[in-house]
Amino acid sequence: MKKSILFVCIENANRSQMAQAFARMYGDDKIEAYSAGSKPSGVINPKAIAAMKELGYDLNTHDSTSLDDMPDIQYDYVVTMGCGDACPYVKARNRIDWDIPDPRDMDAQHFAFVRDFIGQKVKKLLKEMK
Description:
The structure is a single chain. This protein is α/β, with parallel strands linked by helices. It has helices spanning 15-26, 46-53, 108-129, and strands spanning 3-9, 31-37, 75-80, 92-97. Strand 1, helix 1 (15-26) and strand 2 (31-37) form a beta-alpha-beta unit. It is globular, with a radius of gyration of 13 Å.
């Protein structure tokens, strides 16, 4: 049975999108990964698209999604990223908050650093889930 992870940030344009992509890349067929925003921007940041393209992942296949549009299930894990009080309650067996800066306005080098940091965090989480 697949484990479910919901990654949440405010705009669902950068951090949670990249985390979802990494979970899909590293989780094989054992993970069902979702991402959503508490106040979604409606678009994926072109910087996030470019940063993930460098790793061979196409974020153009994603949509910036609201928490209201997520399946009403109990997730195995909900990972919030910097949304604090703006992240409403979501049913989950496990909750984690990753204090990750929003890379939205960062230059490409710093954006890539945040991307790689998210990738490392996702890999670690996936190992812990087994």
